[in-house]
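Subject: Interface between my chains keeps coming out wrong

I've been trying for a while to get a sensible model of this assembly. When I model each chain on its own everything looks fine, but I need the whole thing in one frame so I can look at the contacts. Pasting all components below, labels as-is. Any help appreciated, I'm running out of ideas.
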Amino acid sequence: MAVRTDERVQQTALVSVSGRVAPASATRLRDDAKTNVLFIAALVGIAVAAVFVRVWQINALGFNSDESVYAGQAAAIANNADLKPFFPIFRAHPLLFQTVLSLGYRMGGGDLTARLLAVATGLATVYLVFATARLLYGRKAGLAAALFIALMPYHVIVTRQVLLDGPMVMFATLSLYAVARYSMTGRATWLYVAGGAIGLTVISKETGALLLGSVYVFLALSSSIRVRARDIAISLFVMVIVVAPYPLAVLFSGKSSTGQNYLAWQLFRPPNHGLLFYPTNVPEAMGYLVIVAAIAGFWLHRRTSSWRETLLIAWVAVPVVFFELWPVKGFQYLLPAAPAVAILAGRAVGSWSPNAAFHVMGISLKAGGCAALAMLIITASLILPAWHGIQPSESDEFLAGSGGVPGGREAGLWVNANVPAGATMLALGPSMANIIQFYGHRKAYGLSVSPNPQHRNPSYEAVANPDRALRNNDIQYVVWDAFSASRSSFFSNSLLRYVARYHGTAVHQESVPARDADGSTIQKPVIIIYEVRP
Amino acid sequence: MKRLLLIALAVACGSTVSAATHAAAAPARVDATTPIQHLVVLLQENHTFDNYFGTFPGADGIPAGTCMPVDPSSPSSSQCIAPFHIGSNDVALGDLDHSSATHAKQYNGGEMNGFVAALNERRQDGRLAMGYYDDRDLPYYWYLAKNYVLFDRFFSSASDGSPKNHMYAVAASTLLKRSAQTSGGTAALRPTIDQTAPTIFDRLEEQGISWKFYVQNYEPKLTYRTVDQYPGNRASQVIWVPLLNIDRFIDNPKLSSHIVDSSEYYEDLKNGTLPAVSYFAPSGASEHPPGSIASGERAVRELINALSRSTSWPTSAFVLTYDDWGGWYDHVAPPQVDADGYGFRVPALLISPYSRVGTIDHTQLDFTSILRFIEDNYGLAPLAQRDAAAATLASAFDFQAAPRPAYFWSDNSTVTVLAKSSRRTLVYVAYGSGLALAGAVLLTLVALGTLRARRSRSYLHDSKQGGAL
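Reply #2:
Try treating it as a single job with all components included. I did that and got this:
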């Protein structure tokens, strides 16, 4: 690989701006020391803020469906006898995060341990965003980017949950850093590190493979970056070595059909959300002003654009385009783009020379002051939604991936304490079934899971004939929940028909506060458990 | 002697049973002497121990090498039928004759070699008698046997069919007068009953101990007086609910109100008003051949599940047994304790939070042992000589142990497979070694890169120095 001369000049200029190679004088040294103290204080402040928003009331609500599955897998790997019967180890995704989490379960950890592990990946990502932005645009941009990602509701909400996306984004950001470092230094070692990091991203969650696309687009569009075929081959080799445990473990477990079925299902399943799903949900979660700043910075600095912006744009564009076209959409799927957006926004407010000035309508504005103000406004715009996002939800509707499920843990624990072991339950959908299985330690099916293998996620187990299962007393409890019912009134009605037909008696209920028509607060049932019998 | 006097007194009092107590599940005036405050008794239909549990590990099951002679009267004949799993050959399932005459021929004076021949004489396929079921067919019952108590010396009380045995189950005698000492046919449905003889329910009523007789699909108008109006299987209600042959349980509202539809069983469990003693009479799912045993199993599971998840479970016991042998083979010659029996062994299980875990109980028991347990539990006088002499079910309980929590058996293969599976080593080895290998490769590459960079810097430094020189 080689970086062209003009690029190297630009690198040098950037380094000079950051003050690393400035001539030493007593005054300058004092200023530098003062700046360093401020810098460290700012970094610590960002870290404190990042920790605070990620751990505040982190365990107020129990796991949602996906969290239950991943934590259940981890517990199964840890040979937890209570959860092993309900959560197959080999299900749909790679097991890096679950394997690490299983160590926590082996040491007696629970929900909090699992979520704190996710938080740790979130904090590591904040640091990697800082490191990458500093590398690309200097440390002020690094601080700004770190602040944005630290408070970004999207990243905060996801990294408070036991999801694969948190660790995946952490390794994706490490990959971004390594690619940037390679592009900057030309040292092939960083390309190999990038290969390893992408491998770790993939075995965190297989959609991390999209980063290969991002890297490809970046290299294809950046004429200044040249890569030797040998280095690419070694980098890919490293990646393959790191990814190898995923297919090998599946292969040797005899569950190879599991992954294939899941891939086939994901390829051909009907869309679960429309094309407007991401435009509707993600910009708000990333922060509108963060996105505006990223775009504005890109526009304002367009004349000095380099491979850096190409890299960041490729990092954003590939997953966005892919998941917009992909039929399966999930709230957290675009999270890998968030660090790049934060870095672009950080660049917008953090890479101005303090003495530069804007001239707007004849008025001269100091760029540094404007940038500081912009950063304050952007930060303020993130705090409120982030604060809102980390409050325990009291809604009777639920968006997958957006947090814990109100009443879910409590309902499951009630099941565990009051329903005879060995009982089988029928929930409205697989999401509540997973939660009941995790906390209740009872087998639960989802009514909405199609018995037709072509129409269901192969990870889910269907009841071939729910009516017969109830009639034969193979299912003894039914669980209705408002979250699933809000998505499918058809299955809600079907479930309640079964309740009526099979002598259903409500034996437990979980409620959330809600406002009735006259504005007074009432308790609205969100989960109801029925005993049923033939 | 004192016990005999008590029996005589009790029998004499039988005709003047007090009807003062209320039919509802009122609190017992007499406290139970054991933790068992609720006993539920269910008699299903027509199977022997060997027919259901003949291959159960550890039980006194079908002896190895068994082959039932087709003609026991001809010792020279070598033709015999070995036990076989039902469904594994061309023998069709049917309702085997189970009259007292067939019982006698199968018993054959204690030779126990007439099981095939007796049925052949009835123009039935005698081979079927040697058929058996196992855990493939009876997964739930075998689960119960493995986890609770299975009795392998539990005999039907009478060497006869349903009517006598059901009478024994509630009265410790047949209650039948001589003119009605016949089994099978319509005569069995119109027996002449000794109306003065007491039943266990009279005893309970006297002491204010709550009881009910739950009847599936109960038809209150169907009694021994109206049985002719109900042709077919419906009339079996009169046999399976022997109280419907006794005038006072038909005419006295306070007594008859204890005989209720099975739906009340669930209501009572829900309301916490399960009586101290409950008998349960099935309807369609009685397992009476050729009826579906799977259907019977499901019905029994439903009853036990309902009890298990009720507040009554911690103080309950559920006895599941079968009213007669149904014509099937059993290898244990029943002791002849009196003119009525015993009959051949029948399957019997005790399910209770206090029952011993996975125990095969070898105590010699019959239906009157259940009565004896009730009598002992509440200090009641025996009903007749049979229950007075019977062993109780007490050996099957362990009242020193803490009550066991309820468990719902499920034939869920996924849960079973996952519970047994262990792939954690594979996962740890795969991901651990993969990561370690990757880490090693990365570290090596970084080290090599660093070394190369140092050499490069060193070369440049040397070059510069050389240039200066």
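Reply #3:
Confirming on my end. Chain A touches chain B through 52 residues (CB under 8 Å).
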